[in-house]
């Protein structure tokens, strides 16, 4: 598995995985979050703000969880 960024200026690292439908990301390459399981409940307010800014589609998709 390998970390990558969608854009060079992003703060979020995504984790390449072979599992279908698994979206893993990290802010520090140490703590890994599963987007469908952990967003937004396990993120700090600052992490959620960063995630929402960099991923407006997913922020809108999950807006009812907030």
From TrEMBL:
<dbReference type="Pfam" id="PF24723">
    <property type="entry name" value="DUF7675"/>
</dbReference>
<protein>
    <recommendedName>
        <fullName>DUF7675 domain-containing protein</fullName>
    </recommendedName>
</protein>
<dbReference type="InterPro" id="IPR056092">
    <property type="entry name" value="DUF7675"/>
</dbReference>
<feature type="domain" description="DUF7675">
    <location>
        <begin position="3"/>
        <end position="66"/>
    </location>
</feature>
């Amino acid at each position: 598995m390998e970390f990558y960024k969608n854009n060079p200026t992003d703060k979020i690292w995504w984790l390449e995985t072979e599992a279908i439908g698994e979206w893993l990301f990290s802010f520090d390459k140490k703590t890994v979050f599963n987007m469908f399981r952990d967003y937004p409940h396990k993120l700090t307010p600052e992490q959620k703000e960063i995630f929402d800014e960099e991923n407006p589609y997913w922020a809108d998709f999950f807006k009812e969880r907030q």
